[in-house]
Amino acid sequence: MSNTIIEVRDLSKEFDGEVVVNYINFNVAEGEFVTLLGPSGCGKTTILRMIAGFETPTSGDIYLYGKKINDAAPNERPVNTVFQNYALFPHMNVFNNIAFSLAIKKLPKKQIEEKVNYYLDVVNLSGYGSRDVSSLSGGQQQRVAIARALANEPKVLLLDEPLSALDLKLRKEMQQELKRIQKEVQITFIYVTHDQEEALSLSDKIIVMRKGEILQIGSPIDIYDEPINSYVADFIGESNIIDAVMHKNYEVEFLGKKFKCVDKKFPETTSVKVVIRPEDIEFSSLENAQLTGTIISSTFKGVHYEYKADIGEMEFLVQSTVEKSPGDIVGLSFVPNAIHIMRAEQRNIISSKMKQDNVVSFLGADFECEHEIAGQSQDVLAVIKPADWIILDKADKSAKLEAVIQYSSYHSERYECVAKIGDFTILLESITALKPGDRVGLDVDSDDIMIILDEEDLIEMDQEMDEEEWED
User: 210 to each of 194, 314, 404, how far by Cα in Å?
Assistant: First the structure.
């Protein structure tokens, strides 16, 4: 799976001036099962439609086997799409639904019959050719839609939330079937879903998205065990996320205690975030416990109990097959491998001035923002995350600022960069490779500028982000 079949470079899409896909980059290897995962409205279906040719990129390029296909019509691309609503022809039987596109290509009747029967067998519907599609169950209709798409023998099969209309049991059965089919036909699958469990169980590679941007790319194990930030950790399963400090290699401090971990290469006394999954926490005797707490709620989930335990400074989520009751005092323990370290979220905090309502000035440029602070010409601080800078070509006239890259380091599909704007140092992140000496243009969206009066307001800002933004 080392051969790249699809390459997406700096791809963007706007609708009526609103950016829905924002300069994304990723590759898909031949034979991979790749999933675009994210909440509704994050841009994942728009990306699929651009690959299929149903939407035209506002900027950026899509390559298939190294050839740019931006201007190729949908029927000129060796890709097929399975839609959420199946889009079967109700007046045709199963055989004719699958044979439809083959008949348009005017293939010999015998060849059509062989292909249809072969793909009916692939999707476990042998003998269903004469059935009326309206007589089939939802899962069977989905199989017909997949067989119809596969019969064209595309290089890439695109699947847009194809299982969302099915009930839970049938959806799980179809997940297994999809993986089996993909392995049997050895076709590249690009799959769109908002279901984390579905993504983890199906994919070779997951692309986690939010607000039109890619947050992390990795294998299901990488995404689950080593989330890049709190949003990914919280979106991919349940998590306990704790502020911590790495004092040295293999040692992290949180909740007033030091713990052994498996992480290294952090500078000494570095602020980090710790992620501990609830299934990695075990009940232990109070004498041997690393933490102690009181059970405040218990929910039976079928295969395990889910508990909330008050440990004083925060509530811990614990999943266990051991039965406990609210009010029980419990010991909690976890092994070093259960402690996953994330870099603490970094911010650019910039001295600024509110020029008027919704307009803030910093670093020699004016920006629209979504914060009204009484009093013009009031001194404030603008807070911008490194990933929220819009990185443009230095010649782009829309750029508000120009920065020179001083340092660049590659981490988890992103380049973390230190840049200079005049004498001011900023942090930014880019999926595109940047190197020292590169000059880039910068802008930032109004909703990505947080205005505060002083640094003490950062605590309140974090609380707002936890309550609102991470629940997007």
Answer: 11, 27, 27
